[in-house]
Write a structure and sequence with these properties.
The protein has 487 residues and is an alpha/beta fold. It has three domains: 1-187, Hypothetical protein, domain 2 (Endonuclease III, domain 1, Orthogonal Bundle); 245-364, Nitrogenase molybdenum iron protein domain (Rossmann fold); 378-481, Rossmann fold, CATH 3.40.50.1980. It has helices spanning 6-16, 29-38, 44-57, 61-65, 69-76, 82-100, 108-112, 119-130, 139-147, 156-166, 172-185, 250-258, 278-281, 293-298, 313-321, 334-347, 351-368, 396-403, 419-425, 441-450, 461-465, 471-481; strands at residues 245-247, 265-268, 303-307, 326-329, 378-384, 388-391, 407-408, 416-417, 429-433, 455-459. The strands form two sheets. Strands 5, 6, 7, 8, 9 and 10 form a six-stranded mixed beta sheet that branches. A four-stranded parallel beta sheet has the order 2-1-3-4, with helices on both faces. Strand 3, helix 15 and strand 4 (326-329) form a beta-alpha-beta unit. The protein is elongated and about 85 Å long. The two termini are 47 Å apart.
Length: 487
């Protein structure tokens, strides 16, 4: 399979992982070489929990070389293989004292001669302690490089050689960390998040064009499933599409990632938290209702995306007054989703993606229209407690409930309900999302006692309220509950 364009891949990685760095906490070359030896067959997080106490007791090679082996073993026991690691660490420390005056050498040849230090450890130390270009291949890099088609090598050494040939030496250190971040956050071994991958349109495996060299399976789910756009691999943005996008809507941010636009996102609100890696890759610009206007302007976006109910008019007016191009969506029903898909697709330079997603939802809704005119069970979707608040029949959530064969009840909008008003509604179905208010099993039990004849169900709050990116998933999950009318 063909490798992706190197320049484009490097830019995508830099935008997606600007915080990429060595995951092993260290202050000097000695601490780094010790931490790297400990990281064999152990997570970096566990090593970082272990090393503070270790370095307080053994702050330099001399103290470690003279230490009690039993004490060394006890301090590193949680990292696994502690007896062999303790022996290697004390041998390494003794070698540093006797051969190098207690200093860690800065050449690959001398490092590789130290006990417990192989080629991979030597590369890690050279790159992160001394700034010497090196590209150590661990399990994450091995997997990511092969999935991206950068190497067909079946050993870490072969993959390292291929990567070093493809990429300029001045990018090796940065690339090493970016690939590791990508492997940990997105390109997982068993279940890679292909729909949310910032490299997807450059990845033959993620696009389903080649079998996964790691598992042997074709990643068919990359373009399927309730949270991914229907149809073939995502198109590239057309000419004139915005290069720098700020999204002030959580579900829209997630949808843009699904459409392969992660690298064009330059700003998001603090509530735009999916996919999870976006929290460390795209700068936050304040809240949904109180965005930092000055911060948004400083990002020089080509497009700012808002939603009429989620964001405020003053924010939109301030952004417009600054001369920024705005796309303001309005989603209060499933029909509005069809329009929003098309408008959003056209606005970001992906008109086919918008049309295809709208057509898929339209077909789904046509197949799910209730037969006859009989109303389904009376359903109330609560969104807050103390005071009680609900999503009314005229909201997006209300329309989801309606499309699932239920009858949404309560006042329109997002009303506050007094205790007597809640009782008077006499719901037959109560939906309790886990956000924005976190309804728990205890709340479910309390409301079940209060409404003994009702079906009281807890539901995924994001699934219920995140329109566009999770609309199809919400319809499927509500159908699975079997609360509506039987067909």
């Amino acid at each position: 399979m063909a490798a992706p364009p190197v320049a484009q891949l490097l830019e995508r990685l830099r935008q997606a992982y600007p915080d990429a760095r060595c995951a092993l906490d260290h202050r000097d070359p000695y601490q780094l070489v010790v931490a790297t030896v400990l990281s064999a067959q152990c997570t970096d997080a566990r090593v970082n929990l272990t090393t503070p106490a270790f370095f307080r007791r053994f702050p330099d090679p001399a103290s470690l070389a003279a230490g009690d082996p039993a004490e060394v073993e006890a301090l590193i026991r949680s990292t696994g293989f502690f007896r062999a690691k303790a022996k290697n660490l004390q041998g390494l420390a003794l070698a540093l004292v006797e051969r190098h005056g207690g200093q860690v050498p800065a050449t690959r040849e001398l490092l590789a001669r130290l006990p417990g230090v192989g080629p991979k450890t030597a590369n890690v130390v050279l790159a992160n302690a001394f700034g010497v270009p090196a590209l150590a291949v661990d399990t994450h890099i091995f997997r990511v490089a092969r999935r991206l088609g950068l190497s067909a090598g079946t050993t870490p050494d072969r993959v390292e050689a291929d990567l070093c040939r493809l990429f300029p030496a001045e990018r090796w250190i940065e690339l090493h960390h970016q690939f590791i971040f990508h492997g940990r956050r997105v390109c997982h071994a068993r279940n890679p998040d292909c729909p949310g991958c910032p490299l997807r349109e450059l990845c033959p495996t993620g696009l389903g064009l080649a079998p996964d060299p790691h598992t042997g399976a074709t990643v068919a789910h990359a373009a399927a499933g309730p949270r991914a756009a229907a149809g073939p691999a995502p198109e590239l943005p057309g000419p004139g599409g915005p290069e720098r996008i700020v999204s002030l809507v959580p579900s829209v941010t997630e949808l843009l990632v699904q459409w392969g636009l992660a690298t064009r996102l330059v700003g998001r609100t603090t509530f735009c938290v999916q996919p999870a890696w976006i929290r460390t890759s795209v700068p936050a610009v304040g809240g949904t209702k109180n965005p930092d206007i000055a911060r948004i302007i400083s990002l020089r976006p080509d497009l700012v995306i808002l939603e009429r109910d989620e964001n405020t008019r003053p924010a939109a007016e301030a952004l417009a007054a600054a001369g920024l191009r705005l796309l303001v969506l309005s989603v209060r029903s499933l029909k509005d989703c069809l329009t929003a898909f098309r408008d959003l697709g056209a606005g970001v330079g992906l008109p086919s993606a918008g049309r295809d997603r709208a057509a898929a939802l339209e077909s789904l809704l046509a197949a799910r229209r209730p037969r006859g005119r009989r109303k389904g069970p009376r359903a109330l979707a609560l969104i807050w407690k103390d005071p009680w608040m609900s999503s009314g029949p005229d909201t997006y959530v209300g329309d989801l409930v309606r499309a699932s064969g239920l009858t949404p009840i309560g006042p329109d909008g997002y009303p506050v309900l007094a205790e007597a008003e809640l009782d008077a509604l006499e719901p037959q179905v109560l939906l309790l999302p886990d956000e924005p208010y976190r309804f728990t099993a205890r709340h479910q039990a309390e409301l079940q006692r209060r409404f003994p004849r009702a079906e009281v169900r807890r539901v995924d709050g994001r699934c219920l309220t995140w329109y566009l990116s999770r609309t199809e998933e919400a319809l499927a999950r509500l159908a699975e509950m079997g609360l509506g009318l039987a067909e």
